[in-house]
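Repro:
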Amino acid sequence: MADESRKPLRFTTQKSFAHRLVLSTLTGRAIHISQIRPTSIINPGLAPHEISFLRLLEAITNGSNMEISYTGSTIVYRPGLITGSAPGTGSSGGVIRHELPAGCTRGISYFLIPLCLLAPFSKAPVNVLFTGPGVITSATQTGDMSADSVRTAILPLYAQFGISNNIELRISQRSNPGPGGRGGGGEVQLVFGHQVRLPKTVHLLNPGQVKSIRGVAYCTGVSASNNARMIEAARGILNPMTADTYIFSDVSSAPFAPTFDKSKPDAKKKIGIGFGLSLVAESSTGCLYSADLASPPEGGETPEDIGTQCAYQLLESVSNGGVVSFAAAPTVLTLMAMGSEDVGRLQMGREVLGTEEIVELARDLRTFGISGWGVRDADADSDGDVIVSVVGKGVGNVGRKIA
């Protein structure tokens, strides 16, 4: 009879697909995911972005095994050792080149955020270049944040855990979602060269007051005046809140992609056309709150609408309270759970803690053998926030331990 602890952990549906694979890789537990879009008549099973993420996992690990059913609605994943961009593991010149397919509907942050969670526990530095017709660097209608927000609102959080050296996110070519929300043609490179044995235990309990707001207005293949209009609309709302508001402007040409027309084999077309805005508010204690919005693929939104809605989205993120925003909470909570066997504390807003994604994350962590969270009310002057206590599992970096 097989050991119960070695049997794959069972999950259903495609919800939190990437994060469950990350937890499986970090803890070394095999997982079995079934009922992945079983009722879809046209596209059952794994979507293009999920298959691409599996290929990315295969590239940065050694010994991983994946078994996918004929329809793609069931997968068994057995993780291997996280090797990063070590020589002899598929990297060329220390860089892993990962190409996203044209049918990808998710933003690049769908791949970057899980990859950043794996990178500190890698045996060697992680250097991945994302390219291909499916790279979307802007925010998307599916809820993915832009690459700018990952760089300014997610990566700085790793410094709280003692992970801060040689981390860089380069955006070589910007892109927005194409027709139907598919494809973009951008290019992004992630360099993550700080590997640790265990993340530090953190106690983040003081949100502070918002002292500055920074942002990036970007446009691809459209007039640069769209950036000025978005900035003016956003500043009209944010300037009364804080005087230290600065929004950068980035204008780039649209990328080209093959048309796959047999009569014109060399013909190319512009893709990834659009504009968007990324905003990040920083408090006096270093807490970050982010907001993202981009023009929809079908159009119909003016730059003024994008700037106004993004500014209000940022104010809503700040009003939710806590020391982390909704976008950053899964990253912080996962790193706390993977840290040393000590109790870390995190102050969160009730609206953030009560979302479906955070509740699902707590259940998944419990399934992987990590202790449940302790939740209690914060001080009376904290506007109804709660304190979440997380006990680390002490998983650590196996490759670092061997080395």
